[in-house]
Specification:
Helix content is about 35%, strand content about 20%. It is an alpha+beta fold. It has a single domain, classed as DD-peptidase/beta-lactamase superfamily (Beta-lactamase, 3-Layer(aba) Sandwich), CATH 3.40.710.10. Helix 1 (about 40-55) crosses helix 4 (about 125-135) and helix 2 packs across helix 3.
């Protein structure tokens, strides 16, 4: 049975985009189809913050005070608090002081919505959308914070495509918009990923880092495969809609295995961890 939700029209869909190290399309299927991005949009937030750091506007050592209530993007709406299903049960208590580096790390490897919204309120949505433009993405946008139901119901949404996600991952990993230090920080966060859907479809020993996303009826993952930033690195995004969580995860992993296995077998030395 297909899954319908606020983010899925219930029509099953699978899209993917595979890029080589030079950004050329190796393989794709419906890579321009637009999806709700779920947590994959956090990559754009990460990149935007790191650009601010490189510009000297803030530092990874800056202190951020934890909270779970945020300003809605919907005009006239009350501040919102993340619902239980959206919350990171391991996130520190409200009022706790965290370094920005830890906020960003948790946003990626734990996919923490609290961390994401703290980062977003620090830099603003405009900075994220400017970064999306500078990264050369054509269909991605971020109009609201994570868990902002009033804004969602008011028509303010986030969106992306498999093509944009693969290109965004390449921009991050290759350091096209960031310093060497900021690029290393982002790669390390990606390699610590707790929720990996592409990686189980890869042969053992292959180096990878990723950012997945899931909400009801939506399952995505985007990964780099191989030594970061080299000519041999692959960038793969797989997006699905209309499946439950288990089905979506299985679909992403199976698609990743089918797409990448012939390439990894042909030149395994290019992808060793």
């Amino acid at each position: 049975m297909s899954v319908t939700s606020e983010y899925s029209d219930g029509k099953p869909a699978v899209s993917f985009c595979l890029l080589d190290g030079g950004g050329r399309v190796v393989a794709e299927r419906d890579s321009g189809t637009r999806y709700y991005p779920a947590s994959t949009i956090k990559l754009a937030v990460l990149l935007a913050v790191m650009r601010d750091i490189d510009a000297g506007l803030r530092s990874l050592d800056d202190t951020v005070v934890v909270r779970r209530t945020f300003t809605s993007a919907q005009p006239g709406a009350d501040p919102f608090t993340l619902e239980t299903d959206d919350a990171d049960e391991r996130f520190p208590d409200d009022g706790t002081a965290m370094q920005l580096r830890d906020v960003l790390d948790r946003m990626i490897y734990r996919s923490s919505n609290e961390a994401t919204n703290l980062a977003l309120e620090l830099i603003g949505l405009d900075a994220v959308n400017d970064t999306i433009t500078d990264a050369g993405l054509v269909s991605t946008k971020m109009k609201r914070l994570i868990g902002d139901i009033a804004a969602r119901d008011g028509g303010l949404t986030n969106q992306t495509t498999a093509s944009d996600l693969a290109r965004l991952m390449r921009v991050i990993v290759s350091g096209m918009l960031t310093s060497a230090g900021s690029t290393r920080f982002m790669i390390t966060a990606l390699e610590h990923q707790d929720f990996a859907y592409i990686a189980p479809g890869l042969p053992a020993g292959v180096r990878w880092g990723s950012k997945s996303g899931w909400v009801e009826g939506i399952t995505h993952d985007v990964a780099f495969i191989g030594t970061p930033g080299t000519a041999a690195t692959l960038y793969l995004a797989v997006c699905t809609r209309g499946y439950d969580e288990r089905q979506g995860i299985e679909a992403v992993g199976a698609m990743a295995a089918g797409i990448t296995t012939p390439l990894l077998i042909a030149a395994p030395e290019d992808f060793d961890a």
